[in-house]
Amino acid sequence: MAFVRFNLFYLARPRLNHVAVYDPKLASVWPALHAEIGEEAMASFPNGFLALAIFSLLAIAARAQLSPAFYATTCPNLQSIVRSVIAQVVAQEPRMGASMIRLFFHDCFVNGCDASVLLDDTPTMAGEKNAMGNMNSLRGYEAVDAIKSRVEAACRATVSCADVVALAARDSVSLLGGPSWTV
Ligand code: HEM
């Protein structure tokens, strides 16, 4: 019970700084104050609890999104599709492997890793493809398009462009004799 009571006040703490010095023994001296603080703490409990629950769910969701098995059930052939297309591409032109790892780096170039380096301009918005540092310099869009069309045929609207670029970069490096890593 004492544990429950401590947690109750801990969760309510951000809104109830004065509770830090609250002593239940004062209840006999100031019954009105006791009632007031008790009610306020009870009223704050759902807010604190809700915030904690939402935070926990977000933490779980973030972990799930970073799993290497994220597409294991929704797009089980993803890894083999990417690898087979990249194998053809680098066999034809080994430099494309270098271009793919650069594309992966530049995917986080404009305003960090948000959006995608694959975005074209629209009439109302500048895309990343033609941003400074990317325009007329990056290569490999055709390889990504080839992967993307095969991935879309296998599992429609499931795999993100960023994940395709990350897998393509990894496979380019490993197929050209470099190290490999889990994506
Ligand atoms: C801020 C740091 C960097 C700068 C300023 C920079 C700059 C450049 C420039 C100017 C080129 C030549 C582009 C052209 O010929 O049009 C280039 C090519 C390249 N960069 Fe970087 N780079 C940086 C970081 C990186 C990183 C971190 C990687 C790898 C993850 C990388 C990989 C490459 C590759 C592979 C090429 C050759 C691409 C190709 O032949 O298609 N660079 N870089």
Structural account:
Keywords: Calcium, Disulfide bond, Glycoprotein, Heme, Hydrogen peroxide, Iron, Metal-binding, Oxidoreductase, Peroxidase. Its cofactor is heme b; Ca(2+). GO terms for molecular function: heme binding; lactoperoxidase activity; metal ion binding. This is Plant heme peroxidase family profile domain-containing protein. It catalyses: 2 a phenolic donor + H2O2 = 2 a phenolic radical donor + 2 H2O. The chain is globular and about 60 Å long. It has six helices and no strands. With 183 residues, the chain is an all-alpha fold. 56% of the residues lie in helices and 0% in strands. It folds into two domains: 64 residues, no CATH class; 98 residues, Peroxidase, domain 1, CATH 1.10.520.10. Helix 3 packs antiparallel against helix 5 and helix 3 crosses helix 6. The N terminus is likely disordered. The protein starts with a helix and ends in an 8-residue tail after the last helix. The longest helix is centred in the N-terminal third of the chain and has 35 residues. Protoporphyrin IX containing FE binds next to helix 4.
User: What would you call the structural class?
Assistant: mainly alpha
Briefly, what CATH class of the largest domain? Answer: Mainly Alpha
Q: Return the string of H and E elements.
A: HHHHHH
* Arithmetic mean of pLDDT: 79
Q: Strand-residue fraction?
A: under 5%
> How many helix segments?
6
CATH architecture of the largest domain: Orthogonal Bundle
- Rg for CA atoms: 27 Å
Bound ions, cofactors and other small molecules, one mention each: protoporphyrin IX containing FE
Shape: globular
CATH overall fold name of the largest domain: Peroxidase, domain 1
Give the assembly state of these chains.
Answer: single chain
Whole-number count of domains: 2
Uncertain stretches: 1-27
Helix content: 55-70%
Biggest sheet features: none
N- to C-terminal distance? 47 Å
E-strand count: 0
GO molecular function: heme binding; lactoperoxidase activity; metal ion binding
Catalytic activity: 2 a phenolic donor + H2O2 = 2 a phenolic radical donor + 2 H2O
Cofactor: heme b; Ca(2+)
Pfam family, one: peroxidase
